[in-house]
Known about the structure:
459 residues, alpha+beta, 3 domains, 5-stranded antiparallel beta sheet
Amino acid sequence: MYIFYDLETTGTDVTYDQILQFGAILTDEKLVELDRFEIRCRLLPWIVPSPGALLVTATDIKRLEDPSLPSFYSMMKHIAERLNEWGPAIFVGFNSIRFDEPFLQRAFWQALLPPYLTVTGGNARLDILPLFRAAAWFKPTLFNTPRREDGVPTFRLDALAPANGFNAHNAHDAMGDVEATLFLAQKVAAHFPELWNALVSRSSKASSAALLESSAPVFMFHHGGTPPVACYYRIDKGGGRQAHALLAPLGYDWAGTVGTPTERAMVIRSLVRRIALNKAPLIFSLTEAYEIAGLVPSNAELEQADFLAGSPDYCSHICELIEPLERTVPPIDAQVEETIFNGFANLSDQNLMKDYHQATPQEQLDIARRFSDTRFRRLAMRFLFVCAPHVMSPRELEQIKLGIAQRLTGGIKSQHAWRSVADALDEFASNPELAKIAEAQGITAWLNERRSQFNCRGA
Length: 459
């Protein structure tokens, strides 16, 4: 089963922007549609949308506050329920692993729902954008790759889908983009099944890890690489719990180059690639690479693989030169959105979250005060401010309103991570062409009105 999905949002910031629309289509293994689901929601009071995003998606500002639409929290609960009902499945989008997936994870987390739905419970994920890029490189004449005015190939969905025969694309609408993505997937599956089947088999972390645990060389497609496809060997120890793998290109003379790894640290760091095993990496076994494009490793590459396989200490030394991944720790006064990676919820708080979604508003207030993790207390109070403010105390309401005022104005800091009203208005100042669009004046007036709702002074 596959779940094709897409989001429309208030902007491109996965931390501070908001999902406004969600669309999804469930298919069987042959990519035949079985069901579909679409939902929109109202704008959260502390979110300032990007005027550019509103204009691109043709979002009517009146619709942002339409009382007939569900709240953000109600929408996210409905999405989780439908996806759990459909799963387990492979989640498929267009540029989804870099954009839609992080948005969806953070939205679930902010709504006090399990954030990693798409990669747990037997679910996996696949991204059509890198898949189509690989298809265009392996077989340039199989599909039509549109080009910009300067002649550079473009893989934008709104250009790629119609160039390959999809003429009913309602671009920048969630369901329209889902339909276009499904169409492209069907094209690849039908006309390039070797590539489709190989990438589907990499959709889970376990399958990618299993391929690399075989100690055999692999081919990998890396968009922007020189060349885009090369033969690699895994040099880290591996292990089922690891999220990443380090791959050394076999076109480099690891065995014969003079000097220790330390002396060649800069070169090594530029050559070795770190891949995320749970992000459907475009790696292929030697058999798959031959079936896809007739690729075979050279004798020299096989000799390099044998050298690395027989030199575990040397490989360990190389791995030590690769800088470890470090997640930035948010400051003490960080907005709650920035703290999603500050640790998982403990078992007690997980149980409270489950109870929270089944409780009455008054019971939700009691649960909100019982969370041991202050992050979830803050998120639960936000939830109530939007959905049931009447149960909150005057002091609790005032705290939320002060926080909203800070978000709309940018706060007392000259630099802030989120988009304030002033930042949104600056989009028009920095882009005169944007300001000429007919709807721009209405958006400007609405932004100023939004700021005044919470007695905010201009930032």
